[in-house]
Amino acid sequence: MKVLVFCALVAAAAAWPYDSVNDDAGGASDAQKQHDVNYLLFKVYEDVRDENLHKLGETFDPEADTSHYSDNGEAVHKLVKELKDHRLLQQKHWFSLFNTRQREEALLLYDVLEHSNDWQTFVSNAAYFRNHVNEGEFVYALYAAVVHSSLTKHVVLPPLYEVTPHLFTNSEVIQEAYHAKMTQTPGKFRSHFTGSKKNPEQRVAYFGEDIGLNTHHVTWHLEFPFWWNDKHEGYHLDRKGENFFWVHHQLTVRFDAERLSNHLDPVNELHWEATIEEGFAPHTTYKYGGEFPSRPDNIHFEDVDGIAHIRDLIILENRIRDAIAHGYVTAHDGSTVDINNSHGIDVLGDVIESSTYSPNVEYYGSLHNTAHIVLGRQGDPHGKYDLPPGVLEHFETSTRDPAFFRLHKYMDNIFREHKDSLTPYTKEELEFSGVAIDGVSIDGPLETFFEDFEYSLVNAVDDTPQVADVAISTVVSRLNHKDFSFKIDVNNNNDHEVLATVRIFAWPHNDNNDIPYSFNEGRWRAIELDRFWTKLSPGVNHIVRKSTESAVTVPDVPSFDSLIERTEAALSAGSSEVDIHEFVSAVGVPNRFLIPKGNSEGLEFELVVAVTDGKADAAVEGLHENTVFNHYGYHGVYPDNRPHGYPLDRRVDDERIFHDLSNFHQHTVKIYNH
Fold it and tell me: What does the buried/exposed string (b/e) look like for 576-593 if buried means 16 or more CB atoms within 10 Å of the residue's CB?
């Protein structure tokens, strides 16, 4: 791995670099913006390693000219006042988004960045407040702002596991990294998953502890944050509640598929009055603030001081289940909101999370967010030992704890109760007139394997510009699969071209006792493999869809080292862009996880392909012009009118309806692991 040496501040340009390329109101090119974001996040606990950013951090006055803010400086005045009044969280202290005050502080900075009219104001504020606010709050605010600001549409955020490695890396490896730094000895250290072979959950630790999956989870919550306020932010996050349901439903069914691949039963749901059977020892340490708390086996839920009583969570659950049974939720003003329809899942997702979109947060509470805190605090529910937050109180680390999936199976079962209350689709609703699937095959093996992945720990250790960096990294085993393609033959018997939506799913053929799943049970366990739009000409259409093109997955984000190298090369060549556009969205699951692990004998899955009416499905024009889009993180109007999981999202009382559809195909495949 190439060593980045920063013995002195990087002198990219002696003068302000934003005057030469006038690509937006800020006068900065995409390459310059990428450069600035790279260095704002590089060694975030140390002084910034760029001369211009360092100068801005020392000399910029955020309140000097409020005409550069869309809110006339209202946000920056609030933040500066909090800073001058010494009310902000100190630096070198842990940060958790679930901590109300800490979240408010991070969002104060986010508001300043979001209300910056141009890049010079944006980056100047970022450089200035990097020196003054808590590092965790700074990282969150900057990531959220880059995700949502119109100024940063083409900026690729560095992988969080290299920005804040402590949250993703075992403490034993971090200790070895410190030793390597202190002795100036390059080191590459092997990371191991938590637990031992005595713990059955160790068999699936490669899934929950995968740094790509961790990144997917935290990135989705950055794209669709529960604190989002339309009036304040200026636009609506379309179908946010339904997206919340679907992304966590998919995590849950994918985890169950991995368990079946490793001869484990599907995960059982947690319940407030039942024992938490599996404990968890994170083996991770905060950069500042001590170790992540552990949780022993076989404990009962206790009230968490200052957060919630267990009985309150039971009451909230009962209120939500009552709403499902009645088919409506009661809004804050006493009116009713009908949920007995396709839109109901969106309302229910807002209620359960809950987000600011909830019709009545005072009555239905915040079941999901509160549950994360309560479960995360069970190692020290009364604050007796003054422990820092648990892994479930960070979106970056939540999936490391197997209890995360038990918690979300509990939530998922509530969602299913609603979905199963809806009237099943009729054959007429599912048909696509004149369109038939003639055949589906797979080109290439459905085969998974484990590979080594290396990432840098340079940002994990304390540093000074006077001491050269040495190459310090860790290697972790991760799941991947061989490339393959879906080959789908579709016959359009109409005399004209039609727009079609191709939806591909797979679910386990058998449970862990080798008993086949019924169609209705299988469809709820379906993993979405792809969803895309295409035009069908009259006659036979041969569709080839590569696994690397899946709309539900994303490639690995380039390493910090690679991002910096590519950006500096573009700037040196006088280019205004960096060729990294395919990495702008990091919301999907890693492409490596497109299919489950399978096993050496070949684990059977039911492969399902549905071709539906694209004209009826489309919520926006021109879908066929861009057949690759990540539907987990789509900005603006959501492009698919259909519910997530369609046509498998509602209960199926008679599976013959599907088997009689010409636009529906199902056959059994095997996934191998070698």
Answer: eebebeebbbbbbbbbbb
Mean pLDDT (10-residue bins), the chain, 674 residues: 40 40 62 97 95 97 97 97 98 97 98 97 98 98 96 95 96 96 95 90 96 95 95 91 97 98 96 94 94 95 97 98 98 98 97 96 97 96 96 97 97 98 97 98 97 97 88 97 98 97 98 96 98 96 96 93 96 94 87 97 98 92 59 66 96 96 98 96
Are 601 and 510 in contact, with CB atoms under 8 Å apart?
no
- The torsion angles phi and psi of 495, rounded to 5 degrees, stand at -90, 15
Count the neighbouring beta carbons within 10 Å of the beta carbon of residue 96.
18
CB 207 within 8 A of CB 258: yes
Neighbours of 137 (CB within 10 A): 25
On the question of a cis peptide bond just before residue 354, with omega within 30 degrees of 0, the verdict is yes
Give CA–CA dist 243/667, Å, rounded.
28
Q: Look up residue 279 and give its two tokens.
A: 């404990």
For residue 389 the two structure tokens come to: 């937050």
Cα separation of 622 and 637, whole Å? 13
> Which residues have CB under 8 Å from 386's CB, separation 6+?
380
How far apart, in whole angstroms, are the C-alpha atoms of residue 147 and residue 155? 9
Query: pTM surpassing 0.85?
Result: yes
User: What is the DSSP secondary structure assignment for residue 397, as one 8-state letter?
Assistant: T
Which secondary-structure segment (H or E) carries 539? strand 539-546
- Tokens, residue 339: 């949920």
**Is residue 373 a contact partner of residue 307, using CB atoms and an 8 Å limit?**
yes
Contact predicate 481/445, CB 8 Å = no
